[in-house]
Design goal:
The chain has 20 helices and 20 strands. The strands form 4 sheets. It has a 6-stranded parallel β-sheet, with helices on both faces. Strands 9-8-7-10-11-12 form a 6-stranded parallel β-sheet, sandwiched between helices. Pfam families: TPP_enzyme_C, TPP_enzyme_M, TPP_enzyme_N.
């Protein structure tokens, strides 16, 4: 293309994404947005070619969660748009910044039941923050800027941009625009003062952490502050990596598979401080625990979307800004934050002072709860591996080896199913971002998320735990991992059943299980066929060696563990 010629709308769209710092676009190509694909040819943005739009969307969700920059997915009209919907729902319920570009039929063909036609607003308007359509080539940069801004401001979420085929190829008089300033409110000094007073008045104050507006520096700041204020800390469902789990006041995770001590701590608290998250049905076991408690919500959403129950103080500010405010308003004398975000210990004699308050030693109830959590997080080994005589892998014991061999900075990913409980129970995380799971309970998220994690953080180990049903939701993305040389390790719990649903059937309709049995392929052979390393383990004693080989392999590696369908979760 002549450099002196005006850019096409499709090329300008790509330039605008570059101006917003986008590094990757996860896509399945389609003829409806060819000009955008052509614009990527000479772009600094790396196109990650995926094998199904659902996988592409999940990768974009994972990238948005890790970086705070909206993940970018590109798909074609009709079938492509329907496939990507699962990731849009995930981003909407998980409050993750995501922008999905969807090719559309030419404008002149609208309303004629044209090939792959659909109503982009009708499909997506109820599950997005905004739906935009680029009907004017001169507004290409403006539409992208609007989408990127909307996705990250307030409560983050997904934005869908429709791209009529012929508009993309038209010359645009527009030029790339600077990203809009992302304003965020800082807490008033009075907010911090009131919060401090509430904490001092409480006997059992608990901080519930969640959301995605975290950074390594914020993680350290919040961990320090919560210790100094004598707060018990609990992670919310599948968003629990905001604080290092080695912190002595970290007391577990809420949601499905929660420990009894986490639920008890939450239920017996007399002050709930939700930081980056809100009180939901999953966290409260269907609003049956911890609902009638003095409550503070701290987050960027002025609507406190999804929060139910009492709300006695609402501090509208992002997590990062709140953490900064603590160390300027509440602890300027006590803490020195270095340029890399690390926190220097106070000078001798300061004793972790915050403001004019005396230090608060961790109370006995926190120390007792932590001891109970530590005991619960130790896998029970030496028990039966099956309900019968056959030999199977004991996943509790396998996770002893996973925990020992995984580096502390590993990123852990999973989809939905009982198998995820082994990760959430036995694999502590040590700083944001370290855990990627779908808070909307969407199966098939783990492997695409692992691919994105390996691309965003190639310097870190990436571990995905999957069930046999979950894995085949997006197992084809092993091909994407192999194509781009992504280092990741997958453990598949192969028990030939949709275990979570079978558990519900056993409880509600005992002896009448229907529609939950699976006949799975040889996942190890599948991984090898995709260009990775595939290993099968049938006995517990063989797991460690296989997992070591998988971790050491350059590229994608998979360990298939044959397990008993009658044992569907960690022993208690």
């Amino acid at each position: 293309m002549d450099n002196s010629s005006p850019l096409s709308a499709g090329h300008l769209l790509v330039n605008e994404l570059e101006a917003h710092g986008v590094q990757r676009s996860y896509l399945v190509p389609g003829e409806s947005y060819l000009d955008v694909l052509d614009g990527l040819h000479d772009s600094t943005i790396t196109p990650i070619v995926c094998r199904q739009e659902g996988g592409a969307g999940y990768m974009a969700v994972a990238e948005g969660r890790m970086t705070g920059v909206p993940g970018i997915a590109m798909v074609t009209r009709g079938p492509g748009a329907s496939n990507v919907m699962v990731s849009i729902h995930t981003a909407y319920q998980d409050a993750t910044p995501l922008v999905v570009f969807v090719g559309l039929i030419p404008i002149a063909q609208r309303g004629r039941e044209s090939f792959q036609e659909f109503d982009v607003n009708g499909w997506f308007s109820t599950t997005t923050k905004k739906v935009l359509t680029l009907d004017d080539p001169d507004k290409a940069a403006e539409v992208v800027t609007d989408a990127m801004h909307t996705a990250v401001t307030g409560r983050p979420g997904p934005v869908v941009v429709g791209l009529p085929e012929e508009i993309l190829a038209k010359a645009s008089s527009g030029t790339a625009l600077p990203p809009r300033t992302h304003g965020s409110a800082a807490p008033y000094a009075g907010d911090v003062t009131e919060l401090r007073a509430r904490i001092l008045q409480a006997d059992r104050p608990v901080l519930i952490i969640g959301g995605e507006d975290w950074s390594p520096a914020t993680s350290r700041r919040i961990a320090q502050w919560s210790r100094d204020r004598g707060l018990g800390v609990i992670g919310t469902f599948r968003a629990y990596d905001g604080v290092d789990h080695d912190s002595p006041n970290f007391l577990g995770i809420l949601g499905f598979g929660a420990s009894e001590v986490a639920k008890k701590t939450f239920d017996e608290a007399d002050l709930h401080i939700f930081l980056g998250c809100v009180r939901t049905d999953v966290a409260t076991n269907g609003f049956t625990i911890g609902t009638d408690v003095k409550t503070v919500v701290i987050g960027p959403d002025a609507d406190a979307h999804g929060h139910f129950g009492s709300l006695d103080q609402h501090i509208v500010t992002p997590v990062n800004r709140f953490a900064q405010a603590l160390f300027t308003e509440d602890g300027a004398r006590a803490y020195s934050v270095s340029s890399d975000g690390s926190i220097d210990e106070p000078a001798a004699g300061d004793e972790h002072l915050t403001g004019n308050d005396e230090p608060v030693p961790l109370p006995e109830w926190i120390r007792d709860a932590r001891a109970e959590l530590d005991e619960w997080r130790v896998p029970i080994t030496g028990g039966p591996t099956s309900a019968g005589d056959a030999s199977f892998v004991d996943m509790d014991e396998a996770f002893v080896h996973v925990r020992e061999l995984l580096p502390d900075n590993a990123i852990i990913t999973y989809g939905a199913g009982n198998f995820s409980g082994w990760a959430t129970r036995f694999l502590p995380t040590h700083g944001f971002p370290s855990a990627l799971g779908p808070r909307n309970g969407s199966m098939g998220f783990g492997l695409p998320a692992a691919v994105a994690a390996g691309l965003v953080h190639p310097e870190r180990a990436v571990f995905c735990i999957a069930g046999d049903g979950d894995f085949l939701m997006n197992g084809q993305e092993l091909a994407t991992a192999a194509q781009y040389g992504v280092n990741l390790t997958v453990v598949v719990n192969d028990n030939s059943v949709y275990g979570t649903i079978l558990g519900h059937q056993d409880r509600e309709y005992p002896g009448r299980a229907t529609g939950t049995a699976l006949r799975s392929p040889d996942f190890a052979a599948l991984a090898t066929a995709f260009g990775g390393l595939g290993l099968t383990v049938e006995r517990t004693e063989d797991f460690r060696e296989a997992f070591e080989k998988a971790l050491a392999h350059e590229g994608p590696a998979l360990v298939r563990c044959l397990t008993d369908p009658a044992i569907r979760g960690a022993r208690v």
